[in-house]
Amino acid sequence: MGADVKRSWILLLPAVFAVSWAAILIRASDAPSTSIAFYRMFFAFAMLTPLAMTGYRRSLSDFTSRSFLITIVSGFLLAWHFYFWIASLNYTSIASSVVLVTTQPVFVALFSALFLNEKPGARGVIAIIIAIIGSVLIAGFDFRLQKDYLWGDLLALAGAIMAGSYLFLGRMVRQNVGVFPYIFTVYGVSAATLGVILLTSGHLFETYGSTNYLYFFLLAVGPTLIGHSLYNYSLKHIKAHKVGLSIVGEPVLASIWAIFIFREYPSFGTLVGGALILAALVLVFSEKGQ
To answer: Model's pTM, two decimal places?
Structure first.
């Protein structure tokens, strides 16, 4: 295993920790879900802009016309990932939402096998099947509790599909494009897409209290600039479905934070489904190779 690959695996640990706070910050905010998503990406893009104008300016020439187009599509998908997933937190529990949205490796593995010839291997296939069973258990128990929970679960799954597509495209682009030009463009396109959604809904120019803007800023710094950027860095050295499966560690931490901060305890179905998804994580990480 090369030094870059080892470094990428190590960096996934702080990435998961940073992203695990996203659901907590979103639940703490009382702003509309689309506004939260927009300001999260807008602040992240704004903080990267000075670097793009100075030290990293030359790196923006890494793009070919094809990789730039793919990156635009990736940013568009990331916007819809946040749109669906953040909305899901209005209907279902933090634990259910973050567990279901982290089923994205299923979609990453499917796309990677079809288009990048990156076969997940026997353990990878078994891990994906286990993750699907865990997700079905969570959704099934939530449907028995309340139909609104099921709607939230479906939104989280839609967010997972968008996130899986975003990681898949990131794996394609990052082979030849540096991490900075990639994330700068992706975050910018994502912010612009969410801005258009807000504009068409007539809510773009609404204002929120200072506490909400603090949550937006923290979402931009922690889960986005640290978490997602480290994921995107790792995509050059680690197969996309394995980067996606590392994200499965997020619901464990997020559920722990939710217990202590909101006294929100996961349901039995979430515990069982979450345990299966974590088993899938251990299985895929025990597979040799990138």
So the answer is: 0.85
